[in-house]
Amino acid sequence: MTSSIQGFCGNCGARLMAGANFCRECGTQVPAGLRGQHQTGDPGAYLPSTIASNGTAIPGELAPMGSRTGAWLISYIAVQFITALPVVGWLLSIGAFFWTMVLYQRGQDIGARIVGLRVVRDTGELAGFFQMWVRALASMISFIVIGAGFWTAYWDRDNRTWHDKWVGTYVVKSGPEVDDLPGTSSPTAKAIFWISLVLMIILIVALMVFLATLFASLVDFDPNWGSDEQISTRSGDMPSIHNNI
After folding, report:
1. Model pTM above 0.90
2. Distance (Å, whole) CA 105 – CA 133
3. What is the pLDDT of residues 212-229, one digit of tens each?
């Protein structure tokens, strides 16, 4: 007979989430008397509203695809349209970027904020800044494959996109049971963030060098241009109007 230590699975030793019927690691059923008996501050102490198809206990209620689609349209269509406005567009673009970076700390972007959604990790916490950054990078792959990484979520039992599965996240509705959760990121996500940041800086510098080289090759650059000798030489090459009279 399998016994359980309070807060941990008696079969595999994994930490249990409060209210979970099954261990998210091995699937062992959790005795009713042990549910919800975790210490405050423990990610497992937050009462989940959903058990995912793989047995993972998720804080909050899974967001419907209609809400997720609306959030995506706001973040990637409406915001891009607004930031493309003349004159003020670049200011709005900078503002949108920094607002997104702030929202990333608590599992949201602009669209999710407006619609009322949050991204949570499979550890029972909100996706933190680094986790959201890596999720955004992974979403590019979901998009370039004819958007398959997005539209396949409509047939997924947990409404998860490819990038959700890759980084271990779920999208849920905002609410008291999730809004106060801590935002965390995995060590892998932190490492990928710094690597991607360095690569971005290298690409920007390389692009600037390329554009400068291209501009120099298109312009007839003469270091003596504008000197007295150069002006005198060019003036002597001009036909005199008096010689033609």
Report:
1. no
2. 10
3. 998 888 876 555 555 555
CB contact at 8 A, 169 and 120 = yes
Listing DSSP states for 29-95 in one string gives: BPPGGGTT-PPTT-GGGSPEEEE-TTS-EEEB-BPPHHHHHHHHHIIIIIHHHHHTSTTTHHHHHHH
Q: Is 15 helix (H, G, I), strand (E, B) or coil?
A: strand
131 and 189 in contact (C-beta within 8 Å)? Answer: yes
* Structure-token match 């494959």, residue found: 145
φ/ψ region of 52 (left if φ > 0, alpha if ψ in -120 to 50, else beta) reads beta
Which amino acid type is present at position 135?
A: R
Q: For 124-149, write each residue's pLDDT tens digit.
A: 899 999 999 999 999 999 999 999 99
Domain borders along the chain are: 1-45, 65-185
Cβ partners under 8 Å of residue 130, min gap 6 = 185, 186, 189, 190, 192, 193
Picking from 103, 102, 123, the residue whose alpha carbon sits closest to that of residue 25 is: 123
Mention every residue, 6+ apart, whose C-beta is less than 8 A from residue 33. none
